[in-house]
Amino acid sequence: MKAIFVPTYLNIDLKFELAHVGTRFGAYLIDWIIKCLYLVIVSSATSITFGGSSVLLSFFIYLPLIFYSFFFEWLNKGQSLGKYFLKIRVVGIDGNYPSIYQCAVRWLFLGADTWLIWLFVFIHVSFYFFALFSPLIGGLLIILTEKHQRFGDMAANTVVINTRQKEIYIEDTIYAYATKNKGYEPKYPEIMRLSDKDINQIKFLLERGSETLNPEIANKLAKHIKNLLKIESTDNNYDFLKQLLNDYNYYAINEVK
Question: Considering all CA atoms of the chain, what is the largest pairwise distance in Å, rounded to the nearest integer?
């Protein structure tokens, strides 16, 4: 299975496993089945209620179908319903959730990725049969490109990753490490020399290594932080990093008070 490695300024590469083309195609089919079911249900309901459909009513019926991919990937952090069921997700090339701009670009390029050959039908009707295979354009690009990207992914600077492991992203905050013990005693005041962004990166890398059972991430990270802050510690690397996060929360909360 192919993967991409996202470098961080802490000299630790984050590994993201790229989604297989078969899984992406399966998600695509699920999304279309959902859209077809929606169309059948809504069309039946409106024809019974209104005895026919006006142009304006048809517009509102088709609107969710047109913007389905854009809204789901934007509001659900990179996942349509098909992607959710098959445990894959769109992320930025930097490992973050896709922005509204990236979701919009991917949506706008759906025409190029899936329906490009349909344009030839307007040239001559004999192209109609080949147009049925138009969605294969995006599939071929996913197979042939290094990062499994269709046109929309290339333009938006995104990739689709496997999320069967627990998902932890850079936006996650450090407050899960806030201690509730009133008698807590911090050990590393040097931690306050780092910024909130630094601490969130430490948390992200620590949990990433823990969830993927990769102690090497914690080892490299602990060594880097010790050298950076000139700290000597006999704690094992995982406990050392966890202590740093607890200490940072302790000092941050007491400074606010």
Answer: 80
**CA dihedral of residues 97, 100, 104, 105 (deg, nearest 10):** -60
CA distance 142 to 185: 52
* Polymer length in residues for the chain: 257
DSSP-based three-state secondary structure for 11: coil
Read off the pLDDT of residues 127-177 as tens digits, 9 standing for 90 and up: 655 555 566 777 788 888 889 998 889 999 999 998 875 544 434 444 444
Task: Return d(Cα 257, Cα 238) in angstroms, integer.
Answer: 29
Task: Say how far apart CA 182 and CA 225 lie, in whole Å.
Answer: 27
pTM above 0.85, yes or no: no
Alpha helices in the chain (DSSP H): 21-50, 55-66, 68-75, 81-85, 100-108, 110-114, 128-131, 136-144, 151-156, 196-211, 215-229, 237-256
Q: Which of 14, 1, 9, 21 is nearest to 198 (CA)?
A: 9
Instruction: List the structure tokens of 68.
Output: 């389905």
- Tokens standing for residue 237: 């690397």
Distance CA 192, CA 80 (A): 40
Whole-number Å distance between alpha carbons of 105 and 154: 10
Give the whole-angstrom CA distance, residue 38 versus residue 21: 26
Q: Are 34 and 82 in contact (CB under 8 A)?
A: yes
